[in-house]
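Researcher: Final request for today, and then I'll write up notes for the group meeting. The sequence and the SMILES for pyridoxal-5'-phosphate follow.
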Amino acid sequence: MPKAQETVLEINLKALKHNFEYLKSRLQPNTKFLAVVKAFAYGSDACEIANYLQSLNADYFAVAYINEGIALRHAGVTKPILVLHPQSVNFKQLIEHCLEPSIYNSKILKEFINSASAEKQTNYPIHIKFNTGLNRLGFSGHDVDSIANELKATETVKVTSVFSHLAASEDLEEKRFSLNQIETFNNIAENFTKQIGYKPMRHMCNTSGILNYPEAHFDMVRCGIGLYGFGNSEKENQHLKPISTLKTVISQIHTIKQGESVGYNRAFKSDALLKTATLPIGHADGIGRQYGNGNGFVTINGEKAPIVGNVCMDMVMVNVTNIDCKEGDEVIIFGENPTAENLAASVQTISYELLTSVSQRVKRIFID
Ligand SMILES: *Cc1c(COP(=O)(O)O)cnc(C)c1O
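Model: Predicted protein-pyridoxal-5'-phosphate complex:
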């Protein structure tokens, strides 16, 4: 692997293939695999990742918003794309790009039927989402009759799937809650199928659901973070490989005398002679200010270098007093060690947030 000469996010497609194959090995052979590639495929690159997974025969994709789905179509993704949280203002574009909306309340159902019939569609694929305990998006089980009536009155749309989302699939202390969600979903899906007179696919599991609740795999699973290398537990992390490594370089080394300060607002004041390194990565690249003042760290030649003072927009300074290093040396922010999960934990957040924060200004490099 070439040494970084600027800030880059290196994405290892071999690791992605490994994760995909591992996760598939946890499914029954006929369970479909939907790859969640919202938020630039968790900060990596949705178009590259989706095209690669399409070549590995992923069955379905999901994004959060319509513009994310349009970008995938422009990049050559031809498999079905579920839009998890569409906004009705963009329905015309959704239809033009053959994206499939998640329908989560009667307002959006009516609006979608209106838009699709204005575009002269018949049997347009939609996905009905039920709330079973997350209390975020979704119809309630009591809405089944009214949805079914709405659907019987039109030929414009056809339900491809019914689905729900687990609230605490990674937390085994909440197992009873999750099992209750699964049972609730089963009952709703059963009733819904009876009411509409045909059988849509069912799906419920995200990554931790795949790993912890095989009884809830149904016809398809929706996998995000696992593809990117995290299983939300130490045990599962062992089977997965983080696909991205965020790297940078040392721009400059400073000697700081006792009593001098480093960075904006003089947030750090030195009580000894020390050495700092300035790096070309800041909060505009995804290293938030919470990582400053000794909370977060980077890794240089295998040693931990804590962030000194405030994180700037385009730079951070790190303490390298006891590290053998020079200007131009490579710096690891996260990758195999520490992982994004490890670094995120230093500021009480999760891999998902750190990964999706890496801004579009950071160059993505793909290695196979
Ligand atoms: C983001 C998301 C997923 C993927 O979750 P992971 O924990 O990353 O696997 C699945 N389903 C829905 C509805 C989501 O919003």
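Model: The pocket of pyridoxal-5'-phosphate is lined by residues 36, 38, 84, 165, 206-207, 222-226 (CB under 6 Å). The longest strand covers residues 157-163.
Researcher: Thanks, that's everything.
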